User: What shape does this take?
Amino acid sequence: QVQLVESGGGLVQGGGSLRLSCAASGSIISIRAMGWYRQAPGKQRELVATITSGGSTNYADSVKGRFTISRDNAKNTVYLQMNSLKPEDTADYYCNADVWYYGGGTYINFWGQGTQVTVSS
Assistant: This one.
């Protein structure tokens, strides 16, 4: 099938930067939209940013101007560059992708296992 594996989370001081990566692996034919979501303790999962296969991006208002999403289609990888981090950015960050894989028949939505980001004040 398909696996999404995130990396790059960790502990950072407020105002600092982190770069998250998410690599998709498996018998992949094509990946449509890819994105990042986050879930803080006691809160619902929310959209952070998405990017289409053509490079069109969408951001949550709370991260506009600070976060940048990008992707490398040849590597089936999506990135999230996070700058000017704030304590309220603390959450588990999840990668998401619509993937068409051999045997799947159509695009199927997959989630990664999550990576923790903690921003200290």
The chain has a mean pLDDT of 97.
